[in-house]
Structures are given as structure tokens and as C-alpha cells.
Amino acid sequence: MEEYNPSGLTAEAVYTTPEGFESLVNAAYSYQRWWYGKEEAYNMTEMGTDIWMSAAGDVWPDLTTYTNLQGTNAPITTLWTQLYAAVNLTNAGINRIADAGLTPANRLQREAELRFLRAFYYYHIVETWGGVHFTLEESQGIITTANKTPVDTFYAQILEDLNFAVQHLAPTTPDYGRVTKPAAMSFLARIYLTRKMYKEASDMATAVINGGFGYKLVPNYKDLWIMANNRNSEIVYAVNYAENLTLNDLRNNETNPLGHGRGSNNGHLHFLMKYDNLPGLTRAIEYGRPFNRYMPTRTLLDLYSEADNRYEGSFMEVWYANSTNLPAGMHRGDTAVVATRSAFKGSAGHKYQVYNRNDIYNQNGTVRDNLRYPTLTKHMDNTRSSANEAQSARDAYVIRFAELYLIAAEAQMYLGNLQAAADFINVVRARAAKPGQADAMKITADQVTLDFILDERAREFAGEQLRWFDLKRTNKLVDRVPALNPDVKSVGQHHYIRPIPQSQLDAVTNRDEFTQNPGYQ
To answer: Three-state SS for 500?
Structure first.
């Protein structure tokens, strides 16, 4: 094959100038958008857990239920490809930075960013697929072999890179979306917890909490999800999306042929029940475009007590009439539909339709109606240009300040300091208390268990792309999922890692060495 480079530009020419190197760093950040805010990774991180199950529109039930999950799964293949492309770019930047012509201070800052990003991408790889291919070198030419590297090797490098990032990153940034010192510290705390380095996890999380970085919990949990409050005091790190959607990552054959087929943040599509074919309702910006992919397990809905404002801050149960075609006796603005976790059947003589817990779920928790259910509102975007717009400018939250308290709590629990763990948890629960319910939300040391912490993380982070990692980290996937999610009939130890994409296995020449993960064909 004869190659033709019409621009005449090469990596050596571009990356040896400060301007060219900045383009490499910016591109290295952009790969985060393949994971955060995208349907593929929502399936990988929220589905197949104890808190979500398939709604009528679920397109990858093999990830949701582990039934015949193999290396041909599309999200697994896509994310493998994009994460390794990201690692390759960070390797290129780290190894080429000395020749980029940057000032000493800017060089340290950019290298720290690239090292954070390499650690970030390798964390997602090793947690998802285990001890697979690892390299610190940029790919040159055609590579036809892959290696199997121990998980410990991945994490040794992740820790080295993150410690470098913590040491050299600036504490703040004028360029929202770039990683900062406290963001790297927070991610390092998450890594320490994953690696069972509990004192280090608690110390690092506490260092962010008490570090004077300016983070604080948003007083009202529901306000976290208001689009006008997209960037708030609780966001330690986010993958940002531009309000000008053309600047995001939608595939375009002319300007962005390697982009995503849907583009921007599309989380607002997937957790919505099918409402727009019900009497009195039509599709509207404020109610979203319902892809109807995922619905909550009854377990998740029942985790929230009546004293906890996070249920109302996370879910919608009432839809108001907005159609020009209304049932007799119903007016615009009247209640049209109720989909509720309670056993509510409607008031006397009501005109609206009711889907209560017994209409939605069978007695054993299996699904009776996979079209109607309480709808997660965290990702909704009422600033979209139309009801059918699939792209959203919402930032995808990666680390919220609340997570630091729950990391410290979990670490203190493992260290045997149950009162300290309860104190950290109570900070988060105090914010979640409805007016007058602070005492009801407060827990005592003897209530602190691993299952309680997992329940608390579900209440706080449902739908935020953390759940599968939480169950894996705590070794609770096999215990909790079949017990609490009746969609999943069987989950085995091999499901703690995902299958290697079949396309990758087919592409290598050392197939006797680079083999499929155990338990998959």
C-alpha cells in the first residue's frame, strides 16, 4: 500500500512546537468523552448491577444480564479501542515532551496532566479487563502482538503517574476541564481505596476535604442537576461538553470522521420512561426524549427513606398534561401520569393514569411494565434546542466532593474506626436530610457496615457511572446482584472482568499468548 500525506505534517514536526504539543494534550483529554456521558459506558458501569435493569429499549442486554456476554459486544469493543488510543497518545506526549519547546513550568504542568490522563485511562482498562496489554511506549508502525501484564504492574504505574501529577499540577485552572492538583488527589484516593490501601485512601481523601481548595457540598442535592448550576462548588473533576454542540464529539465525515455516532453527553436519553404516547402528554424538552434503555430496580427505589431528599432530587414521578389533545375533563397543567415507587392508586375520581410499584414490578421484583417507571432526572437537559435533540451540553461529573467523604468513611471502616466512618457518612447524609429530618438521617457507628456503605453510595451516586466499579472493588458483584436484581439470573466470578474484544484477539499473531479472559469463549 502506498501512503500519501497531503498535508506533509508529521508527528515529529507538529509535536516539537509548543502549539503542536498543546494540540496533543487537548486530544488526550478528548478521549474521556468516549466513556463519560456515553451510552456504551453507562451500560458498562451502571447495568449488570444491583440498582438498574433493562427497560424496553435496552440494546445490549448481554451487559445488563451477563447472558452470553462475549467479546463481540459492541460497547466493549468500542471502549477498548478508544481507551488504548488514548493511552497511546499520552505515551507519545510523555515521551516527546522534552523536545516540545515548552517553558520549564509549562512542561511540568503538561507532563503532569498527561500522566494523570494515562493513569486515568489505564485504571479504566485494568479494572474492566484485568491484566491485559500494557506499554509505556508510543506505537510506531504496525504492531501485531499484544502482551498480558499483571494487574500489579498496571497499578504500580498508575500510582507513580498520579503521585507525579499531585506533586506538579496547579491547584486551580482557568481552563475548566483541565485536571488540577485536588482532582488528581481525589482520583488517587479512589485508587488507594481500590487497592485496599486504606490509610492512604483516608489520608488523601481527608487532605482534599481539609485542603482549603474551595470545594463544598451544594446545600440542596437537587440543585446539583440544574443545567444553570452545571459547574458548581461540589465538582472536583468533570468531563466538560461545550454549549456549542459543534465543538463536541459528534461524528462528521468532513470535520470529525472519528467522532461518536451520537455525540456530546447523551445520558439524558437513557433513563427516561416512555411517556410521550400516554394520554395528555406529548414529547417535550422538559420531559426529555425517552430512549427507555434503563429502569431502576425496586431495590434502588426502596433504598431512600422518607427523610431522604435524594429520592426527589434524583427521580421524577409526576408528568403534567402538555398536549393539545387531552382526555375529557383534563386541562393543560393537570397531572397526566404518575409513575411511583409507592402503592398509590390515585385520588378519588382522578383523570390521570397511575403506574404504582405493583403495576411496575411483580411481587418478586421482576419487571411487569418495562415502559413506565420513576425516571432518573440527573442527566436531563432542558436547555436543548428541541425535544428531539439527542446531544446535551451537560458536563459529566467524574468526581464530586461527596465522594471524598464516602471514600474516607469506607477506608475508616476497614481500619476499624467505625465512629470516624459514621462521622464522614453523616456529613453526606446531613445534606440529604429533608427539613426537620436531620436526626432521622444521622447514623451511629454500629450501623456502619460494607453493605450500608454500598447502599449509601447507591443513594448518592445512582446513574453516575460508578456502580459496577463499587461492586467490583468491594467484591460484592456476585453476592448483591443476583440477590437484589431479579433480571440477573446468574453472575460468576469471571464477570469481575469483561471479555477482551474478539476483534483484538483476531488481530494479533501471538494468539497462544494473548488469549481470551477466563470464562469467556
So the answer is: coil
